[in-house]
Design goal:
The protein is globular. It has two domains: about 80 residues, no CATH class; about 160 residues, C8orf32 fold, CATH 3.10.620. The protein is an alpha+beta fold. It starts with a helix and ends in an 18-residue tail after the last helix. Helix 7 runs antiparallel to helix 10.
């Protein structure tokens, strides 16, 4: 009797082992998924958050819930992580969000969408490269290589401080300050036509930093991304709600001033001339969306789903 009992237990154990081996991945995923549902996740407790902005946007919003339940939740988490200047963070899929890993995979490979989210954060916190590690049980690690080094940030801040000392006077309105910076950038830099041609031909050497704010501010040369980064940094410093707008060929700024969202494009106000002369224009200085499209029906097209504030200007 004892032998039969022992045989039966051995048989059950073998069946259990075979079951566990066959479904080991599903079992691990179930255990891990169940474990993470109660995991507490919060942003690092940093009272001196670097370049964080608290503007309210329609496309992406700040969140403190890092157990995502929808595609929009994922976008909000990515924005929040970038906005706070975090370089490594882990968040989780909610157990009832069945498409979570699929949506995450799609989003992580959508460079247009990710660069759009980048447009809403301080250039200092924007990414040069962003990486996602997505587990089958819903744990997501996001790591960021930032676009600006600490040394570049110090150089830009020093140059803006120098600009303000010389050009900003007591009693100036916010609009006047923006115009002064607009004119300063254009008068002290030129469009990087050579690198723009390289990019257009698919052989960008990356030989200049004209794609960053250091280009126009430090080296006097800029692509549209350099102009728009420099202007966004200054607008953030003024406390003016703003973000960058981009399409496949161009990027510029959108600014909320006196309750109205207006476009600001330094690149097109600093045209390339045949004789090399430096011209300052203000045709694209704080214009409505209707006016923008009247001035340029093609070059300033954009996805209104990403930038809904433009529909109110």
């Amino acid at each position: 009797m004892r032998k039969k009992h022992g045989f039966f237990l051995t048989f059950l154990l073998c069946i259990l082992l075979i079951f566990c081996f066959t479904y080991r991945e599903e079992i691990v995923n179930f255990v891990m998924s169940s474990a993470i549902q109660n995991k507490q996740v919060a942003l690092p407790n940093d009272d001196e958050e670097n370049n964080f902005n608290n503007y309210e946007f329609q496309f992406v919003k700040e969140t403190n819930d890092f157990h995502v339940k929808s595609r929009q939740d994922i976008l909000n988490v990515i924005y929040t992580i970038l906005n706070h200047g975090i370089t490594d963070f882990t968040f989780y899929c909610d157990k009832d969000y069945e498409r979570c890993t699929d949506d995450l995979s799609d989003i992580s490979q959508d460079q247009v969408l990710l660069s759009t989210i980048n447009n809403f954060v301080s250039p200092y916190n924007s990414y040069e490269k962003v990486y996602f590690k997505i587990s089958s049980y819903g744990e997501v690690n996001m790591s960021i290589d930032k676009l600006y080094s600490d040394e570049e940030i110090r150089s830009v801040e020093s140059k803006i401080a120098e600009f303000e000392t010389i050009n900003i006077k007591e009693g100036m309105s916010v609009r006047d300050k923006i115009k002064a910076f607009h004119d300063y950038l254009i008068n002290n830099s030129v469009y990087d036509k050579e690198r723009a041609n390289e990019i257009e031909n698919g052989n960008d050497s990356g030989g200049s930093n004209s794609h960053k704010a250091t280009g126009p501010l430090i080296n006097g040369i800029a692509l549209c991304s350099g102009y728009s980064d420099a202007m966004k940094i200054y607008l953030d410093k003024l406390g003016v709600p703003n973000y960058k707008i981009s399409n496949s060929n161009h990027i510029w700024n959108l600014v909320k001033l006196d309750g109205e969202w207006l476009h600001l494009d330094l690149t097109w106000d600093d045209p390339v001339t045949t004789d090399g002369s430096n011209i300052l224009l203000d045709r694209f200085f704080l214009v409505t969306t209707d006016k923008l499209h009247e001035l340029d029906p093609t070059g300033h097209n954009f996805n209104a789903e990403y930038y809904p504030e433009t529909q109110n200007s």
